[in-house]
Design brief:
With 290 residues, the chain is α+β, with helices and mostly antiparallel strands. The protein has four helices and 16 strands.
C-alpha cells in the first residue's frame, strides 16, 4: 500500500515539474524573442498573432498542369480556436471552386500564411476534419501550431483599403493596358490588389499569365491627395485566389524607390484613410515606419 502511494506521489511530482519546466521554457523563449531583433524565417510564439477573424491564405499541394506545376491560394478566415485546433472558414456565394474542394480532404498538407502588424507569417498543418454541412461554406479543422515562421518583416503598417483603382503594366514586352482592380490593402512599402473576380478556371489562368513577377506596374488611386501621383511598383507575386462566385487574380507589389516628399504624401494619405475608418480609436494605428 505504501509502495503504491509512493509511486503515485513520485509520478505526480515528476509530471508537475515537467509541466512547470515546459511553461518556463516557453516564457524564457518569449522573453528572448522580445529582447532580440527578429529577422526573416525566424520562429515566434503563436499566441499573440493568431486570433479569430484574421484573414489567411491557404495553399494545398501543387498540382500538375499543362503549363507546369500549379498552386492556387485560397482566401479564408479563422473562425474558431481551441487549445489544440484552428477552424478555417472558406465561403462562396455559389458552388465552391474545384481548387477549394481539392484541399477539403482529411490529411491534406496545407501551407497557411497571414499578415499582422509586425510582418507576414507562415505555418504548415494537415487537415484533421472537414465540415461541408452548410452549402457554400467549407470549414477546415487543422491542428493549432505552437510556432510561426516570420517570412517577412514589416517596415510599414498595412492599411486596409477596399477601393477600386487603375492598374497597368508598363514595358515594351509585357505591357498590360490599364485595368480596374480592387486594392485590398496598402502600406508605404507596397500593396495587394485583386484583378478580375468571379472568373472560371480558364479565364483566371489567362488573366494570371498577363502579369509576370518582376514587371513594373503603375497604380492610380481614387484618393484625393494621390490622384496626381501615379505609383510605380515591382510585381512580387501573382496568384489565383478563390473569390465570391469564382476565381480572381491577386497581385502583390513593392513600390519602387520614390522621393521622400512622395513617400510622406503616401504615408499621410494612408494615415488619413485609417483615421476615417477608425474615428473612435483611442490610439489610431498609423501606417508609418514601425
Amino acid at each position: 500500500m505504501n509502495l503504491g502511494m509512493h509511486f503515485w506521489a513520485v509520478s505526480l511530482t515528476t509530471g508537475a515539474l515537467l509541466f512547470l519546466g515546459s511553461c518556463g521554457t516557453r516564457a524564457l523563449f518569449a522573453r528572448w524573442r522580445a529582447a532580440n531583433a527578429m529577422g526573416e524565417d525566424e520562429l515566434e510564439l503563436t499566441n499573440s498573432r493568431l486570433h479569430v477573424g484574421i484573414r489567411v491564405q491557404i495553399e494545398g499541394p501543387a498540382r500538375e498542369a499543362a503549363s507546369g506545376r500549379s498552386q492556387t491560394a485560397i482566401g479564408a478566415a479563422v473562425c474558431g480556436m481551441s487549445a489544440r485546433t484552428l477552424t478555417l472558414c472558406i465561403e462562396s456565394s455559389v458552388r465552391l471552386p474545384d481548387e477549394t474542394l481539392q484541399v477539403a480532404r482529411h490529411g491534406v498538407p496545407l501551407s497557411i500564411r497571414f499578415v499582422s502588424d509586425t510582418g507576414s507569417y507562415r505555418f504548415d498543418g494537415r487537415v484533421l476534419r472537414v465540415d461541408l454541412t452548410n452549402p457554400g461554406r467549407l470549414l477546415l479543422i487543422v491542428r493549432r501550431p505552437l510556432w510561426l515562421a516570420r517570412v517577412q518583416r514589416r517596415r510599414f503598417f498595412r492599411t486596409p483599403l477596399g477601393v477600386p483603382a487603375s492598374l497597368a503594366i508598363i514595358g515594351s514586352v509585357n505591357a498590360v493596358a490599364p485595368r480596374s482592380a480592387m486594392v485590398d490593402d496598402m502600406s508605404g512599402n507596397g500593396f495587394s490588389a485583386i484583378v478580375g473576380a468571379a472568373l472560371g478556371p480558364i479565364a483566371a489562368a489567362d488573366l494570371e499569365s498577363n502579369y509576370t513577377v518582376g514587371s513594373t506596374a503603375i497604380i492610380r488611386l481614387p484618393i484625393a491627395s494621390l490622384r496626381e501621383l501615379p505609383l510605380h511598383a515591382s510585381v512580387k507575386s501573382v496568384r489565383r485566389i478563390a473569390t465570391r462566385g469564382g476565381i480572381g487574380v491577386q497581385i502583390a507589389c513593392e513600390f519602387l524607390p520614390m522621393s521622400h516628399p512622395e513617400q510622406e504624401l503616401l504615408v499621410q494619405a494612408l494615415r488619413d484613410v485609417d483615421l476615417l475608418a477608425h474615428p473612435h480609436a483611442s490610439h489610431p494605428r498609423a501606417p508609418g515606419v514601425c
